[in-house]
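Final report, closing paragraph on structural work. Over the funding period we assembled a curated collection of sequence-structure pairs, and we close with a single example.
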Amino acid sequence: MAWFSLYLLSLLWAMTGTSTHTRSSCSVPPAQKPLVNGIQVLMESSVTHSAFPNPSVLIAMNLAGAYNLEAQKLLTYKLMASDTADLTIGQLALTIMALTSSCRDPGNKVSILQGQMEDWAPSSPNAEASSFYGPSVAILALCQKNPEMTLPIAARFAKTLLANSSPFNIDTGAMVTLALTCMYNKIPVGSEEGYRTLFGQVLKDTVENISRRIKDNGIIGDIYSTGLAMQALSVTPEQPLKEWNCKETMDTILSEIQQGKFHNPMAIAQILPSLEGKTYLDVPHVSCSPDHEVQPTLPNSPSPVPPSASNITVIYTINNQLRGVELLFNVTINVSVKSGSVLLVVLEEAQRKNPIFKFETTMTSWGLVISSINDIAENVNHKTYWQFLSGTTPLNEGVADYIPFNHEHITANFTQY
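Its predicted structure, as stored:
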């Protein structure tokens, strides 16, 4: 009887095809909607002529319903003009989805992405889980354009995932779930049943791994991985053994927003669709609205009192002990900055006091990333990067967002993954 019920369930999912109704949904209470509006306005304000064109921001704007139509148009035009040669597989896939959500034709970007995925292979049999994130987005973007064409590509990708034994990554797992759920729902009639079995197995394993990361307060992994994980758990046809309490997750996220934890545009773009009851599976179904702006209702809380101008001391260490790197060092400095300063200010002050702390940055969709310290640069081929820690705990915010506290010990550790 149980098997027959599952069989009927799989048939229902196959018949729904493009449906994106959630299996476990929850919504923002009306009284807290201004909080969500507030972070959306903050995200949209990041779109400027000089800013990095972030397709994730445009997707979130369109799924939620944009308030700032000029920002929406500007970002759309910048992404339409983007050179595919400058984009990774993941960036190209997100650009296609962003343009689709704006009711714009991605043009030859789809065929270019298809060609890249036909040639794609992992760097090694046990490649880092994060290296599957971009290809997962690509499968999702291609599925939304032509699922039948994407079927063999997705099947090869799914088999590669089953063979991989690297440590689980929540963001990648969530994107894998969204991509293969799209494929699972759109398997053409008459196709081999093996496709459904294959996608179902990967989905089952992936969703179980996500569910094991659900904390007692509903956060999945950390607050910045929760948005994508919420999307994944809300649409997967393979439900985890551990039941997910969506309302608990929603309540905790709203509390974190109220505390000001979501101010990075990319972080907002990741969480906003779930707060609006949407997922990336809804991208092809966005109705492009007429050109009139809707004014959001924003929180009416009083303006915060400016913090005092007192200084704090941050202990800052730069460390490189990797063998094979020409310059080994472990140097510590005490840095005094204004209370409330972001970590980037600490790095700038340390650099001013001692040139050994000189650093370089690279702009990404998540903001500034430290790419080099003391002439030791990250290297994709060597799988090295600069990891920032508070004590022994890795930071989950970037240097332009994280605010150190008094006497905190921050370490920049040259690390290999």
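Residues 54 and 157 are 26 Å apart (CA to CA). The radius of gyration is 22 Å. We thank the funder for supporting this effort.
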